[in-house]
UniProtKB/TrEMBL annotation:
SUPFAM superfamilies: RNA-binding domain, RBD (SSF54928). Belongs to the ESF2/ABP1 family. GO terms for biological process: endonucleolytic cleavage in 5'-ETS of tricistronic rRNA transcript (SSU-rRNA, 5.8S rRNA, LSU-rRNA); endonucleolytic cleavage in ITS1 to separate SSU-rRNA from 5.8S rRNA and LSU-rRNA from tricistronic rRNA transcript (SSU-rRNA, 5.8S rRNA, LSU-rRNA); endonucleolytic cleavage to generate mature 5'-end of SSU-rRNA from (SSU-rRNA, 5.8S rRNA, LSU-rRNA); small-subunit processome assembly. PANTHER family: ACTIVATOR OF BASAL TRANSCRIPTION 1 (PTHR12311). Coiled coil: none annotated. It comes from Coccolithus braarudii. The keyword Translocase does not apply. It comes from the Eukaryota. Keywords: Nucleus, RNA-binding. This is RRM domain-containing protein. One of its GO terms (molecular function) is RNA binding. CDD domains: RRM_ABT1_like (cd12263). It is found in: Nucleus, Nucleolus. The keyword Nucleus applies.
Amino acid sequence: RRPTLRCSSWSPPADAAMVKAKKPPLTEEGLAAFVEKEKNKGVCFLGRIPPYMKPNALRTMLSGLGTDVLRIYLQPEDTAVRARRVKSGGNKKKCFSEGWVEFADKRRAKRIASTLNNTAMTNNQRSFYAHDLWNIKYLHKFKWDNLTEKMANEARTRHDKMRSE
């Protein structure tokens, strides 16, 4: 028979893996390094996303080009367009209309955008995206925060519009 715990103040042992360590406050040198790293990031705009391409597939295509892909946001297609496609017997998969990609180095992001724009997505003819072209543009003086502000502003105006009706 197993002994039962009758103590109500029992707590699990303070194991190093279970306890979250507090981060020390950011120093001036750390802050300067963080700001410099943020200034060096570059954002590219993808004007067209091929049908049924997912963010992971896009990340694998762009990750081998010399710099890290930090963040990807793909704008889902309009609900009316999707409803029309599904109603007419089309595919029910999620599609995206446009997207933004953040790279770790803005110089390389500019070079990636200039070299990939209007070229074939893959050289492999068996690929699903073999006949699609890149439509990519580097956005000067555009940071990821601008994108999140834009999305928040659109959501706020949509919410205000719904509330006024």
